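Final report, closing paragraph on structural work. Over the funding period we assembled a curated collection of sequence-structure pairs, and we close with a single example.
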Amino acid sequence: MLVCVAAAGGAQAGVAQSNAPSDGRVITAETITRSHAKTAWDAVRLTVPNVQLREVHGQPARIQRRGRASIYQEDQVRVMLDHLPVDDLQVLKQVAASDILTIEVLSGLDATTQYGGGSTTGVIVISTKNGRP
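Its predicted structure, as stored:
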């Protein structure tokens, strides 16, 4: 389960709590701007807690949750960009952080309800300003 940091007495500044039953979090554009991220990959690396980002030869390779729940379970987190699945994480290096509207972190029941059984380890949903209907 992906768990985001919450300050005592409410959500952190720039991190809003969603109505998700799994206590999902929405990271706002202001938080992303304050992180000084240049790409979507940097924004995820700098603002989404409790995930590990792996790079191979300086290129995005894998996002997985911290701590293994099982020796059998795959800990790869599903990434959605404007509600489309991202299979090649290199795409996140091509999206400017300034174009990101929100990053929503889903886990548990909410992740599997919205994105299916393959999302048990969590989902990171990146919404861009250009991807809004």
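Residues 15-128 form a domain with the Ferric Hydroxamate Uptake Protein; Chain A, domain 1 fold (CATH 2.170.130.10). The first helix runs from residue 29 to 34. We thank the funder for supporting this effort.
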